[in-house]
Amino acid sequence: MAINNTTLQIKFKQRLNKLASNDYDNIECWQIIEAFNKAQIEWCRRQLHGSNVFKEGDEASKRRIDDLQPLLVRQILTGVNNADHFEGNNFPVDYLEYKRVSINATNDCCTTERSMTVYLAEEANVDLIMRDPLKRPDFEWGETFCTMQQNTIRVYHRDFNIVSPTLTYYRRPRMIEIANCVDPYTQQTSGSDVTCEFKDDVVELIIDEAVSIIAGDIEAVSQAMRGTQSAEKNN
Questions:
Q1: Residue 188: is it exposed, middle or buried by C-beta count within 10 angstroms (0-12/13-18/19+)?
Q2: Among candidates 174, 206, 178, which has minimal Cα distance to 192?
């Protein structure tokens, strides 16, 4: 059974307060929400950091694949075909981090779609890549590249037509809400609970990190250190 928001708040107070003390009972619900949602983003960015080649990327272990798979989604890209590239116009609003772009392609001699390998390249190197016969888009070799700028994705082509461009990316995790809690930023009251979508073991790690954030805000050094160490140790 998933951890509900009542349990989540009890765990927060246990980590900060030991439940027998009233020292930190003035922590409000919106502070728990803000700290937990901030901790979710920090946890996600830390898991996504690095490269799989060096055994520290988002798919470097079965545990990371399992923990992050709820956030991995696909979206078909729509956009405009220009002379040398396709430019998408429906960049996802919940985008967190790039995973890959996949496309099919056809050309004048081959109307049967074939899959292409798409590499993410630096915008600064576009002109160099397009001039390099070993790196530029090539239908025969089944390879091309893409770049990102201003929340758009450009997939480059030369001797082929791009078909069915698809972006695979990590989305932002769902932000939690606590029923009847007033958000001081928007002055809106949450109508119902919105629980965390991660597994219970991951939620426990995020709670430790969130507690560390709140403890740092209220200068509770011991709790801040304990929460940080627990979150890092179980990465």
A1: exposed
A2: 178
Q: Which residues of 160-171 are buried (b: 16+ CB within 10 A; e: fewer)?
A: bbbeebebebbb
* CA angle (107, 110, 114) in 5-degree steps: 85
Task: Please report where in the chains the tokens 């928007």 appear, as a residue.
Answer: 186
Mean pLDDT of 196-202: 93
Q: What is the pTM (predicted TM-score) of this model?
A: 0.85
Residues 6 or more apart whose CB falls under 8 angstroms from that of 179 comprise: 5, 190, 191, 192, 193
Query: In sequence order, what are the residues at sequence separation of 6 or more whose Cβ sits closer than 8 angstroms to the Cβ of residue 34?
Result: none
Q: pLDDT tens digit string along 123-157?
A: 999 999 999 999 999 999 999 999 999 999 999 99
pLDDT of 55 higher than 60: no
pLDDT the model gives residue 109: 86
Residue located via tokens 């791009």: 162
How far apart, in whole angstroms, are the C-alpha atoms of residue 224 and residue 234?
A: 16
